[in-house]
Specification:
Distance between the termini: 34 Å
Order of helices and strands: HEEEHEEHEHHHEHEHEE
Helix content: 25-40%
Mean pLDDT: 88
Largest sheet: 6 strands, mixed
Structural class: alpha/beta
Radius of gyration: 18 Å
Length: 236
């Protein structure tokens, strides 16, 4: 294989997510195109933010990329595998194996302690036994400075602590990419900075890929790359 071909192959294999002509319509009350021919890719190890005014389509795009919304035109590839048109069962498997989620609200289950909340996606995926998943969960808690909170219930934690637990939960299945929808939107500046530092460390030390939708321009300016959206288009 020539050096050029090898470079092209490495670049292709480096793509975690790619879209080709991705378009999305809403139909209530009339047909409206919210995403227009989106062509983009996220490479392994990148820390990317998506910014734009409310209503520009950035959260809609994230939900398409996450495979949670499948009503679109165009193609979506995850790790060079076409996921467009896959069955709901196959998409659920792809999500569980490849994507970790951190939302504005932590969505922890109040009936379970911190440790169990983190373990749940791992138990659902069922690739490791419960003891291995518990060991991995403790490891993530330690990385996030939360190991002493493992047996507490969610209602015993602060907002910043809950979001750190949500990050640990997103990491439990060793995902290809972590996606965040305004993960600092419900936090004060101190905890927002802490969450950014955690994300940055994950990228720098663990080569974790991150794609974060945010209104926080200061947050976005510190990421590796900014995708700016306007009226359903990527403009930069």
């Amino acid at each position: 294989m020539t050096p050029l071909k090898l470079l092209e192959e490495n670049n292709m294999n480096n793509k975690v997510i790619e879209t080709i002509g991705l378009s999305k319509y809403f139909y209530d009350p009339i047909k409206f195109q919210v995403l227009k021919e989106i062509n983009m890719s996220i490479n392994h190890g990148e820390f990317v933010s998506i910014v734009g005014k409310s209503g520009c389509g950035k959260s809609t795009l994230l939900y398409l990329l996450s495979t949670m919304d499948t009503d679109y035109e165009g193609q979506l590839l995850i790790h060079d595998k076409l996921v467009t048109g896959q069955t709901d069962k196959e998409l659920a498997k792809i999500r569980n194996e490849n994507i970790g989620f951190v939302f504005q609200f932590h969505y922890l289950l109040n009936e379970y302690n911190v440790l169990k909340n983190i373990m749940l996606p791992g138990l659902k995926l069922d690739k490791l036994n419960p003891d291995e998943i518990e060991h991995r969960a403790y490891g993530h808690l330690k990385t996030l400075g939360m190991e002493d909170q493992a047996l507490k219930m969610p209602n015993q934690l602060s907002g910043g602590q809950k979001q750190r637990v949500a990050i640990a939960r997103a990491l439990i299945n060793d995902p290809l990419i972590i996606m965040g929808d305004e993960p600092t939107g419900n936090l004060d500046q101190k905890n927002s900075d802490l969450v950014f530092d955690i994300f940055s460390e994950l990228t720098q030390e663990h080569n974790q890929t991150l794609l974060i939708v945010t209104h926080d321009i200061d947050f976005a300016n510190k990421t590796n790359r900014i995708i700016t959206m306007e009226d359903g288009h990527i403009i930069s």
